[in-house]
Amino acid sequence: MNTPQRPLGTVIEILQMIGLDVTHQYEDLVFVSHNLFILEFTDVGEQIDLYFNEEIEEDKAREVIGKLAAMGELHGLAFVYKGAYALSENADESISVEFFDLTDP
Questions:
Q1: What pTM, to 2 d.p., does this model score?
Q2: Which of 21, 29, 33, 104 is the most exposed place for a label (fewest CB within 10 A)?
Q3: By three-state DSSP, how is residue 63 classified?
């Protein structure tokens, strides 16, 4: 089985160009400064799924989507808006991420 290459370096560069930073990367997830959104690498190397924090204002989300789409196009990447997410702290002080896909009922 072929695992697609994850373009983390390119993603970091794009985020820096739009004034954001990667705060943490865990497996296929990339956490972005200010808890604005999470990126998820997919089985298609050039597609990166995008989940906004459930508390982000719609206008801010649209602005970021526009910037990511433009920068992604220049770098051969497609950022695909998939839905929202919420973070919660567990009893053992670890963090859980719950995703709310657009396709969920």
A1: 0.88
A2: 104
A3: helix
